[in-house]
Amino acid sequence: MTLPALALCAIVGMLPLRVLPMLPPGEWIVGGALMALLLLLRGPQALRYGCVTLLCLCWGLAMAHFTLAPIADLTGRHQLVEAVVRTTDGATTHTVTIVKAEGKWLPGGVNVTLYGSYLPAAPCPGQRWSLLLALRPVHGQLNEGGFDNQRHSLSQGKVLTGRVLRATALNTQCSLRGKYIASVTRALNGYAWRDVILALGFGERLNVSDSIKNLMRATGTAHLMAISGLHIALAGAIGWGMARLTQRVLPAQRIGHRLPLLLSLLMAAMYTWLAGANPPAVRTLLSLTICAATGLSGRRWHPWQIWLCCIGSIVIADPLAVLSDSLWLSAFAVAALIFWYQWMPFRPHTPCRPLRMLYGMVHLQAGITLLLLPLQISLFHGISTTSLVANMFAVPAITLISVPLILAGMVLHLLPLSGIEQAVWWLADRSLAVTFSTLEALPDGWLEVDQRWQWLALVPWLAIACWRLRLHVAVPFTAATMLASTLFPFLPRPAEKGWTVHMLDVGHGLALVIERHGRAMLYDTGGAWSGGDSGRQTIIPWLRWHHLTPEGVIVSHKHLDHRGGLASVLAAWPGLPVRSPMGWEGHSPCERGQTWRWQGLRFTALWPLPGHKQSGNNRSCVVRIDDGHQSVLLTGDIEADAELAMLKHHWQFMRADVIQVPHHGSRTSSGGALLGQVAGRVAIASVARYNAWHLPSKKVVERYRTRGYRWFDTAHAGQISVVFTAHGWQVRRYREQILPRWYHQWFGVPADSR
Prior knowledge:
46% of the residues lie in helices and 17% in strands. By secondary structure, the chain is α/β, with parallel strands linked by helices. The chain has five domains: 69 residues, no CATH class; 100 residues, CATH 2.40.50; 266 residues, no CATH class; 38 residues, no CATH class; 246 residues, Metallo-beta-lactamase, Chain A (4-Layer Sandwich), CATH 3.60.15. The radius of gyration is 29 Å and the shape is globular. One of its GO terms (biological process) is establishment of competence for transformation.
């Protein structure tokens, strides 16, 4: 079996980890591995590829179980541990490796991210601490098309987060890398682009401002900030160049191709360590090692064979890397380049060397821009219309000027040449200033698109294949049909008669979308926090990804966890009508007795009373929505006193099939009189798993269930969608139904709202 074939078996064997709804038991994995080994040794040759694939699958499943094991071992009670600091923002966020828990050594250590935790001494990488920790399993908000935090965390082997209850320093000495970074940071004080220099040099991106990140995202240059293939390959190229310069003074019999390759690998490995050995950097180093090994093998390898060997070695070394979007983005980018240069080779027809270089850059950037469209739309839900122009100057500027200057400064920092070092840092700082000022001069090129564009983005691939295979000549109708089929999602469709209520998973807060006929009505807009809000982070991307246009917003009351994203929503869709009980300028009132229609649905306001003097939760706008047969009651944060008053004035209109649980399931709401009068069948609650108020109340949940309601909450289910049709209704939950995956499970104890 050849290495490329083995690599292909490894890739195929690991891919089920992305789609399995649950992990099989350990006994099944052991049994499958033994059967595969037996057939591999004793079975027919025709089965060997299948046996190797099965072995790789068993290896990946075993590593998934191993990664999840600390959840059972370290959660449920406070843990006294010894831990080594790996990364830190210098304040409250730290990544540590637990090496000992309750006096027992942990083989390989367990990586944990600690939030909101100050340490008694200034933290830095390499310090060793005795910590009393409250640990909890990783948990993320889950919405269709949203960022999948749980999958991302598991792809990096991080299954626990926590906070520090008590800390005692065992060894406050920083690691060699930590001391070096701290020293370089002090040397860079006063430079405007210090944080970007540290990000490019060491991968320390925690302090890079959001404005810089957003600029690079909008211009399609965010890949330049990552310590990955480009920078590590550049370090390897420097090592290769140093070796070649050395060889110029050696006799001919001493000159060979091995020394430059080995020295380039050594330089790449040193830079990977210096950059914190983050997963993308380690994967790049592994790929460079495979490329060097193929070069030393003495045989000619096809680019696709090397590509397979690189991806195969990565997933064998780290099976959960198949969950990483960054791995597939890098792999897809390299595959796109191989495809582009094989199917659309660059053949300049000018003798002018500068023009050939310019044409070559345009050819390269055009290929990578066009062929990465499918993955860019799938991962980021948008495209950058200025990426081609931005990368034309940003890639050479940062790769050939800024990064070499930064690397030179890092080397000079080790030497007693402070004057030359400062001159190099100044040049690096000015080069970045010029690059980013040019990026800022470009128009805002980020274009958010919906999921229909995923198929249209395949047109460049299909068009190139049709042209090179001459399908447009041999089978023109088939080729035209194939290309035209990508437009199918854009064709108008008959209006659906049903409607859907989506409760988005926004943590502690509330955001619902009523969807009908491709239009949307919002009820509340989630929460807000320093530097962001649910509107910008969740609601707007969700609406655009699903090709929904909002036509109005109902805000239940003024508390920030219900109106936090309103400003962002109104900025995205200016002039959107808002209805609320707050009496704010531009808001239509929400008062008992009001009724209006939207897309054939009838909205009836049940609370508050006209002129009602109460404020806060008890002034929540309560709305009943019905289609004449089925109905939903939206209650905001109404509490028991207002519930009884509302029943007194409007009891005959309270019945509904579905109720949005008031006040996130707090014991101050959901009184028995309300539940009895509504007489519903489904209760949906918007709650965060680790909320400070331990919501929902166990008594409230039991009260609903005792009265015959089916209970669903976003902490357990993620996004909840209630679909109403002429034949009835159906509740769809993200974790169990919309996208059931083993990495979307609720990890840890069944009920946990710490």
